User: Which sequence fits this backbone?
């Protein structure tokens, strides 16, 4: 059997974080309910003590039963040491911890030959997963907030050594599905090894809400993710942290990406999206990215990725190391506001690659060594700042260790680098350290560090950027007369200032003081400029006694039930007490409260601000939208018909109403209904829950497989009574139907679902429908009247003895029951038949008077006629 090794990650100085978290989990676990699930190969003592015992087949059934047992109340589900063999989903309800006995102790192997999408699904908040190894096609899928994953290893290698297809877009996968945002998710000491998909992936449906906020990766590792055409797709990375989602406050600390198919750490640029994706607050610290892209067979250097760190906007990388990556150690495409502090690259083709309309990128104390081509490659960029950059022994293609302004023949991107600052010391290769094609407005301090007499100290760097205006007003509120000191904090070296204090007075000083003598809310504007441009900014100064209530939220106004909102008081006029009403029967007296909304709905928020005898109220109607989190539990997901299923509503957020759609045309509004599936088929069950105050809705679905033959049924509707008659057949069968066979009774057949058939000849036909699936078949038959045949009288009928009128056929059925021809069938006809029976037999066509159709005239015909009276 093939063995794989999942090596531990270095702690990078934050071992105490994991220890504290483990202690917290232990304290919580001591107070919470706990159940034990044992695998088929668990120890005898564990199986004896277990609440649920697995048999090594469909073990997710017992695991889900244990999780459902704690649904609603919370607790801990412990998986004993051993291997759990699963072939379907595992659903983890809210406020539950699912934990094993360590990566080497507990293994969850998820394999199903007919299904690769086999996640451990987390749809409700306050969930913790820890201490197990996940193998096969399984992956962890998180679609909610407040989730922690600790000490979990994931690989597509099964226990049999086979590498299985990947089920999800990442072994650790956060999916903002367009119904709500996701925040507060942490991965600690987690590893993805030998995977056919991304190790870690953050993604979204592409439609708002799609925020992934406050996501932490601590001491995590992605190794050998992606195997080209064998994988889920050919663009597999170790950490794929942005595709369609918006990211806020993402931290990666002490993480390692090693030998992945594409890049190690990747943020998709996304500026061409509509609207562009958001990137804010990205922090990457003490991370290592090595050997990425080396197994990739795509053409180099024209293929974009295969880099150590691929970033684009609003990111700070500190003490990060890139080693031997096939493309760049650090790749910035279309970048804005990116800072590298104390970062190094060793042996990648390029140390830093900054291209395609990048601006505002800063490197502080960074080093590029032994690069195969260039230490720095930049084109179509401006306001790039290199402070104390060292390039050592780069390959020196075209006679230079760094290249600016050239971009292998792509006119759109082969643009110069302008308005930038380069403080570079070169070692090893004594070629020209840097060349810039057609660059303007740049400042260069270039040195050869190991040449005698060439060492020197660079002058203090002066940024060539245009200013970015900002200032501080102290104090910003108070009573008139109030002296306010204004301090300029503008970046970019402004050379002139213009202050407008909002009360008709101005100043050109850099840091003026101004005294306000009248009450009011004054808007202060600062204009700054230099040779490269100008900028302005505004703040308000509040002078007076009466408060003016106001507030906002610091992040967002749409959350899932259980999420928090940060409220910020923006009132003016010195309020010293606050009363908040959040619309959900809770209040707060904090100045800037953080409130958790446990109930789903749409809520108004009210703030009463008070100072002395003065108060003011701000009310914002329908201000906060809290989505319920729909989740369901089923006690059985497959079985034979008739199958009885107990459904459990495990939704989070106290929904005010719910609707179950059982997928077979029937519904229920009960909280925990019981439904019977009488026929075989695959049914999609949908639970829709709604918040209060006409609040938002959320949906959860589950798929049930019921074995059993279908029940055949149909209707037949003729169009007319005169041949040819066209009949429309409508299939109304119940259950899963894989095939149909119609026999129309006239020698013709069909396999359509609801065919239309034309009968050429009048008559009554037996039409039969047979429906089949893999479990059996069912048939039913209906008589179809395709019209009456044209009437033709029997020739040779004559009047009976003593009668003046011919016998008649009143029912037009070629039977002459009106023997005396008086237009009625009565007792006189019976007497006449009795008296003249022999004469009829000798002189009339027998078929006209053979009422019982036995081929002769006899007493039975008289009895038949008598019974008609």
Assistant:
């Amino acid at each position: 059997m093939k063995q794989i090794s999942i090596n531990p990650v270095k702690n990078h100085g934050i071992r105490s974080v994991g220890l504290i978290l483990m202690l917290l989990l232990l304290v919580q676990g001591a107070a919470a309910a706990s159940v034990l699930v044992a695998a088929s190969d668990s120890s005898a003592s564990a199986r004896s003590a277990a609440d649920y015992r697995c048999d090594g087949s469909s073990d997710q059934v017992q695991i889900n039963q244990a999780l459902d047992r704690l649904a609603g109340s919370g607790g801990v589900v412990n998986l004993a040491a051993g291997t759990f063999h699963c072939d379907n989903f595992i659903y983890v309800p809210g406020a539950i911890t699912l934990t094993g006995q360590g990566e080497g102790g507990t293994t969850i192997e998820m394999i199903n030959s007919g299904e690769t999408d086999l996640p451990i699904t987390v749809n409700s908040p306050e969930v913790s997963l820890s201490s197990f190894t996940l193998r096969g096609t399984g992956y962890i899928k998180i679609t909610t907030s407040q989730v922690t994953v600790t000490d979990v290893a994931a690989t597509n290698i099964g226990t049999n050594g086979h590498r299985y297809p990947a089920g999800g877009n990442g072994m650790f996968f956060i999916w903002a599905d367009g119904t709500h945002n996701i925040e507060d998710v942490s991965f600690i000491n987690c590893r993805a090894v030998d995977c056919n998909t991304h190790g870690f992936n953050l993604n979204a449906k592409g439609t708002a809400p799609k925020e992934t906020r406050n996501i932490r990766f601590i001491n995590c590792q992605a190794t050998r993710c992606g195997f080209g055409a064998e994988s889920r797709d050919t663009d597999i990375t170790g950490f794929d942290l942005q595709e369609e989602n918006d990211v806020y406050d993402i931290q990666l600390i002490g993480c390692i990406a090693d030998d992945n198919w594409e890049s190690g750490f990747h943020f998709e640029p996304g500026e061409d999206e509509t609207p562009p994706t958001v990137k804010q607050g990205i922090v990457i610290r003490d991370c290592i990215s090595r050997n990425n892209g080396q197994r990739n067979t795509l053409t180099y250097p024209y293929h974009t990725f295969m880099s150590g760190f691929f970033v684009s906007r609003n990111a700070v990388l500190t003490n990060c190391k890139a080693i031997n990556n096939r493309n760049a150690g650090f790749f910035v495409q279309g970048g804005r506001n990116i800072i590298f502090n104390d970062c190094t690259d060793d042996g990648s083709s390029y140390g830093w690659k900054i291209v395609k309309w990048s601006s505002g990128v800063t490197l502080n104390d960074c080093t590029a060594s032994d690069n195969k081509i260039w230490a720095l490659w930049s084109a179509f960029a401006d306001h790039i700042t290199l402070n104390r950059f060292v390039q050592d022994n780069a390959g020196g293609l075209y006679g230079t260790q760094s290249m600016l302004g050239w971009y292998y023949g792509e006119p759109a991107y082969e643009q110069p680098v302008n308005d930038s600052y380069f403080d570079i010391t070169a070692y090893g290769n004594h070629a020209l350290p840097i060349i810039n094609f057609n660059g303007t407005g740049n400042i260069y301090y270039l040195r050869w560090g190991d040449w005698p007499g060439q060492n020197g100290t660079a002058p203090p760097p002066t940024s060539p950027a245009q200013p970015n205006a900002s200032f501080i007003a102290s104090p910003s509120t108070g009573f008139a007369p109030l002296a306010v000191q204004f301090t300029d904090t503008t970046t970019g070296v402004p050379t002139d200032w213009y202050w407008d204090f909002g009360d008709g007075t101005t100043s050109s000083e850099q840091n003026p003081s101004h005294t306000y003598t009248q009450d009011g809310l004054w808007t202060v504007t600062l204009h700054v400029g230099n040779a490269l441009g100008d900028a302005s900014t505004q703040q308000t100064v509040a002078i007076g006694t009466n408060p003016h209530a106001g507030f906002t939220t610091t992040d967002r106004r749409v959350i899932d039930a259980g999420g928090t909102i940060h409220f910020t008081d923006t009132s003016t006029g010195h309020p010293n007490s606050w009363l908040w009403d959040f619309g959900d029967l809770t209040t707060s007296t904090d100045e800037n409260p953080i409130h958790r909304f446990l109930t789903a709905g749409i809520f108004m928020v009210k703030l009463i601000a008070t100072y002395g005898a003065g108060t003011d109220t701000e009310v914002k109607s329908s201000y906060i939208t809290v989505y319920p989190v729909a989740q369901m539990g089923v006690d059985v997901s497959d079985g034979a018909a008739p199958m009885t299923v107990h459904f459990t509503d495990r939704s989070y957020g106290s929904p005010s109403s719910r609707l179950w759609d059982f997928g077979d045309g029937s519904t229920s509004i009960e909280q925990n209904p019981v439904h019977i599936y009488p026929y075989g088929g695959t049914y999609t069950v949908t639970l829709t829950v709604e918040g209060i105050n006409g609040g938002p809705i959320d949906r959860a679905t589950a798929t049930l497989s019921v074995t059993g033959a279908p029940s055949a049924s149909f209707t037949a509707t003729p169009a007319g009574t005169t041949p040819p008659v066209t009949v429309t057949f409508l299939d109304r069968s119940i259950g899963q139907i894989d095939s149909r066979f119609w026999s129309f009774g006239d020698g013709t057949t069909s396999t359509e679902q609801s065919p239309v058939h034309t009968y050429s000849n009048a008559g009554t036909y037996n039409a039969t429908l047979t429906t089949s699936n893999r479990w059996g078949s069912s048939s039913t038959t209906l008589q179809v009247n395709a019209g009456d045949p044209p009437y033709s009288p029997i020739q040779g009928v004559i009047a009976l003895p003593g009668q003046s009128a011919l016998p008649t056929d009143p029912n037009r059925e070629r039977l002459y029951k009106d023997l005396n021809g008086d237009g009625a069938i009565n007792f006189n006809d019976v007497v006449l038949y009795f008296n003249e029976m022999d004469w009829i037999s000798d002189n009339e066509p027998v078929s006209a008077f053979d009422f019982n159709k036995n081929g002769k005239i006899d007493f039975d015909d008289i009895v038949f006629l008598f019974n008609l009276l």
Summary: The first strand starts at residue 34 and ends at 38. The radius of gyration is 41 Å. Residues 1-31, 451-464 have pLDDT under 50 and may be disordered.
